[in-house]
Amino acid sequence: MERRWDRVGGKMQSIGSTLTKSITLPMVAVGGAALKMSIEFDTAMTKIQTIASESAGNMKALRESVLALAPTVGLGPKALAEGLLVIESTGFRGQQALEILTLSAKASAVGLGDTKDIARALTAVITAYGAENITAARAADILFATIDVGAAEADQLAGELGRVVGIAANLGISFEQVGAFIATYTRLGLSAAEATTG
Q1: Residue 124: pLDDT band by 50, 70, 90 thresholds?
Q2: Of the candidates 60, 45, 48, which has an alpha carbon nearest to the alpha carbon of residue 92?
Q3: CA-to-CA distance for 197 and 193, rounded, in angstroms?
Q4: How far is CA 176 from CA 32, 112, 155, 170, in A?
Q5: List of residues 6+ apart from 32 with CB closer than 8 A
Q6: Which of 86, 141, 154, 197 could form a disulfide with 119 if both were Cys (CB 3.0 to 4.6 A apart)?
Q7: How do residues 38-87 score in pLDDT, each as one tens digit?
């Protein structure tokens, strides 16, 4: 009888060890990753409130909007919050900021670059040409076409566009023309920096 109990005890230890390795440890890892992502999201949202001086009520609405957008575009809340931080830090607020974020996130979801890089490029264009002259949706369409037809990546263009769109706007050169030039020359082998400088 004692031997049977020893065998049963050994089997129970084996089952317990298997359950720990197969279920408990992965659940702890998932919980830890979720906690880390939650902290990173909260940190990004706190930066937005600090930099943009958003009210508590506006922050609550922004937070809810970002969390609602995440599953529709297939991106994590942290990536969206980082994109929103770029947008808000350039002076865009409310519905306009959320529209730019949504367009940036959709472009990111289809592989055109990081949300924050696309947001940086869009805000540069809208700032240079003025919101009364170009909408976020129109700027996004031109930017996507520039990336799609040309050979530059969104992250390469983000930093470069900010240097040239202000000058182009002052010279009366449309963003469509800027995009066509960049697309043409990057397709011919020039880098984004060389194409925008040219």
Answers
A1: very high
A2: 48
A3: 6
A4: 46, 18, 19, 14
A5: none
A6: 86
A7: 677 787 777 887 777 777 788 888 889 999 999 999 898 989 999 999 99
Residue type, 43: T
Rounded Cα distance between 136 and 127, Å, is 10
Q: Which CA distances in Å does 174 have to 91, 125, 164, 165?
A: 22, 10, 12, 9
Is the per-residue pLDDT at 12 higher than 60? no
Q: Is 99 exposed, middle or buried (0-12, 13-18, 19+ CB in 10 A)?
A: middle
Tokens standing for 43?
Answer: 């940190």
C-alpha span between 192 and 157 (Å, rounded): 6
Could you tell me where the DSSP H helices lie in 90-189? 94-109, 115-129, 136-149, 154-170, 175-187
